[in-house]
């Protein structure tokens, strides 16, 4: 409750404080755009230029707002920021940049301007003071102008060919960093755990023991694959991206692949659990085929032969060993 009382309501701010809030918001947005530009400059220089230009636009509006404040209220600008005002639109922390894709960054930038314009329009609508209403309306118009400026800058720096090339590069990076390690993990988890799980199942016909073996095999394989992927390549020369991201993708998907057909053995009845596990294995193998076709552009017959036949052989080996 004390935290809530330390935040001001927008309706309680004076005209000077509203202007100060606008100034600090423009400063923050300019920093965010420059962070976007710096993050993208190496791989997407054309989009980086767009964000450089948008940061300059924010600087221009900030200078105009400071000039207006100096004229109306003097040199001392009150210290008030977004986090000081209840309900004021928030910005995504800049340290999350590393987790955002190119298209997501573009969408975030568009949302930033739309949210600011919508907020100022709503604030202007609720204001009963003519001067405050005009001020907030001017700010809303400025934010709308930012959107038009962004579109103009995109036309200047990012033609259709450049954007298409950057989109292809972004897709390739996504495949290298997330899809490829994740697919390798899913294949390893789904296929390599078939033998120990079904060998245990047919040897013991004890669902709880089978589940424990499957759990241990899946988690152990996930940890092993995750560390192996992360340690195998730092991504600097290959361009495959962060080893941490690749390790997480590989480790998690390996564990998921193994747990898929281990979890049915939580069902006490052996044959019910085994039939459900068969169905899950079938779904897992065809999911791998679909991912290979969609992201890796592997022909259907080749993907089917590699995955389904390989999985069937491993399953057969496990079943035969367990039955013997």
Describe the protein:
This protein is elongated. About 75% of the residues lie in helices and about 0% in strands. The protein has two domains: about 160 residues, Up-down Bundle (Ferritin); about 150 residues, no CATH class. It is mostly helical and about 325 residues long. The protein has a two-stranded parallel sheet. The termini are far apart.
Blueprint of the fold:
Elements: H1 2-5, E1 8-9, H2 15-40, H3 45-73, E2 85-86, H4 102-126, H5 130-157, H6 160-192, H7 194-204, H8 207-232, H9 243-260, H10 270-295, H11 300-323
What's the total helix number?
11
Oligomer: single chain
Strand content: under 5%
What structural class should be given to the helix and strand makeup?
Answer: mainly alpha
Strand element count: 2
> What is the straight-line distance between the termini?
67 Å
CATH C-level of the largest domain: Mainly Alpha
Summed over residues and divided by their number, the pLDDT gives a mean of 78
The largest β sheet comes out as:
2 strands, parallel
Helix content: over 70%
CATH structural architecture of the largest domain? Up-down Bundle
């Amino acid at each position: 409750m004390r935290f809530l009382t330390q935040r001001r309501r927008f309706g309680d701010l004076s005209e000077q404080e509203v202007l100060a809030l606008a100034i600090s918001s423009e400063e923050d947005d300019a920093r965010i755009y420059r962070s976007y530009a710096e993050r993208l400059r190496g791989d997407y220089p054309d989009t980086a230029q767009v964000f450089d230009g948008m940061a300059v636009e924010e600087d221009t509006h900030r200078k105009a707002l400071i000039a207006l404040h100096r004229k109306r209220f003097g040199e001392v600008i009150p210290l008030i920021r977004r986090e000081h005002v209840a309900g004021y639109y928030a910005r995504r922390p800049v340290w999350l940049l590393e987790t955002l894709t190119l298209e997501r960054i573009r969408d975030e930038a568009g949302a930033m301007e739309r949210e600011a314009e919508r907020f100022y329009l709503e604030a202007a609508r609720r204001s009963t003071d003519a001067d405050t209403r005009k001020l907030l309306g001017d700010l809303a118009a400025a934010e709308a102008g930012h959107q038009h400026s962004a579109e103009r800058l995109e036309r200047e720096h990012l033609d259709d060919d450049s954007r298409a090339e950057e989109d292809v590069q972004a897709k390739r990076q996504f495949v290298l960093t997330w899809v490829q390690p994740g697919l390798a993990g899913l294949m390893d988890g789904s296929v390599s755990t078939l033998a120990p799980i079904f060998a245990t199942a047919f040897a013991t016909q004890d669902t709880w023991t089978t589940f424990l073996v499957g759990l241990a095999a899946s988690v152990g394989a996930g940890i092993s694959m995750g560390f192996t992927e992360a340690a195998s390549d730092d991504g600097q020369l290959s361009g495959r991206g962060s080893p941490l991201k690749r390790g997480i993708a590989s480790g998690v998907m390996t564990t998921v692949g193994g747990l898929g057909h281990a979890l049915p053995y939580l069902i006490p009845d052996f044959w019910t659990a085994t039939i459900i596990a068969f169905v899950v294995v079938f779904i897992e193998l065809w999911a791998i085929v679909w991912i290979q076709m969609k992201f890796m552009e592997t022909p259907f017959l080749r993907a089917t032969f590699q995955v389904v036949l390989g999985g069937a052989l491993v399953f057969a080996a496990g079943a035969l060993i367990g039955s013997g």
